[in-house]
Design brief:
Keywords: Membrane, Transmembrane, Transmembrane helix. With 147 residues, this protein is an all-alpha fold. It is 76% helix and 0% strand. The chain folds into two domains: 78 residues; 69 residues, no CATH class.
């Protein structure tokens, strides 16, 4: 399978993966830098007003860029099998995340569990994406898109 044998992958397929990895790395680096800056500046009380709004938005926008990188990768991937596996992983991640969010939301509404910040859903989605890779390995014999 092309997904498991890089020597058989076309240059176009490898280029799509390289772009994906670069975009993902850049967005995750931006996320870490902006999160560290926001946490540091907010804890020291050095922000307010529009600057605080900007600091609060930047880490989330970096995560949105990571999700966008995955979307661009799916659109650029020429190997139909790998593209199908990647979409399968994303569907598993989305189903897991939406299911947990719905159940937790009702439990929270009725005071049975504490409130959890919504950004943890992103962590859960990426965990679901990794679980999706394991599922695709078991069901289709390939890891799909996971680095």
């Amino acid at each position: 399978m092309v997904g498991d044998c890089p020597e058989f992958a076309t240059e176009q397929v490898r280029a799509a993966r390289r772009r994906y990895v670069r975009r993902l790395a850049a967005s995750m680096a931006l996320y870490l830098v902006t999160l560290f800056a926001a946490e540091t500046l907010v804890k020291t009380g050095q922000t307010s007003g529009l600057f605080l709004w900007a600091l609060a938005l930047l880490p989330g926008l970096a995560i949105a860029a990571a999700v966008g990188a995955l979307g661009f990768y799916i659109a650029a991937e020429r190997d139909e099998f790998i593209r199908m596996l990647t979409i399968h992983q994303a569907l598993i991640a989305t189903g897991l995340t939406l299911g947990v969010a719905a159940v937790w939301g009702f439990l929270e509404t009725y005071g049975l569990v504490p409130h959890i910040a919504a950004y943890w859903l992103v962590f859960l989605w990426f965990l679901g994406f990794a679980i999706g890779a394991v599922v695709t390995r078991v069901t289709h014999g390939s890891w799909g898109t996971i680095w």
